[in-house]
Amino acid sequence: MKIACAVALAAAAAAIGCGGGSDATGGAKVEPAAPLEDVTMSLEGHASAEDVGVLMADKLGFFREEGLRVAVDDPLVPTRPMEYVPNGIVQFALSQQPELVLSRAEQVPVVAVGSLLPEATASFAWLEEAGIDDVADLEGKTIGISGLSYERAFLEAILRQAGLKIGDVEVKRSGYRMVPELLGGEVDAIFGGSSNVEGVRLADGGPEVVFTPVGDLGVPPYEEVAIVTRPELVATEPELVRKFVSAVVRGARAAIEDPAAAAEAIHDQAVHDRAPAISQEEAEAQLEATLPLLSESGYMDPGQADRLGAWMQREGMIGNERVARRALTNAFLPQP
Question: pTM to 2 decimals?
């Protein structure tokens, strides 16, 4: 398991430690530098432009400057980060705010401590040649999702607005294969893919694709990618949380300043994870669509969270709209 390997490697690195030494003339012993603190974290999926804050923080040494040695890995399936964090497999992960809210509503101990992408990019997509004009035309069709619980809940709400029930369609858990399954005709539409990631992949010389953002389908704004950890870590190691968030925010700013280096960081992480190949050109195209959306502060809007929580409560997804606001804190963001 990739994450388990990352944890083992981090533990091994910690066990090696640093040894002292003497100068060439036999003078006073040179004190070793303070050892780095090992940290494990999971992306929310295969490396993409949406993760660039983390990837640039790693590439440019921002984590090390904060005294951290961070093992960055991707999850075996997109649903795993919200399992890894509460179970202590990793200390930090990236996830979508709606997934976080649903987890908190089920008493899962997770909290968001910063944002990478404060705008929703999830979309509905189908091939133009499929003859689908709108959501109502999906009756009897097969819809692929990555498997996240919020995707099914949001899909049900969107179908309801179009006069359909979830039972009127077949929902397939496609995982990382949403794009190839859509292009291969295994599903008629996909839901939850990002216009700036899957949208770029689908636009690369293939058939024409209709992309409709969830914001155009009645879903309120939310944080597309947030940094998630355990409330216990927030309470017991606040300085660790602050250092991690600070490095990621610096990484996002660096990506905006140097897109070429950011594209290289995405490509290198995909190679490291042995994920499906992503060319430098595709990474650059993802970045072009993503950089204008990146957060340069990590700030999460509590008012936006309130509106998301109220909508999720009205749609029957959660019992208390306040869950959304309670699932985030801006207390660990770097000062302007």
Answer: 0.88
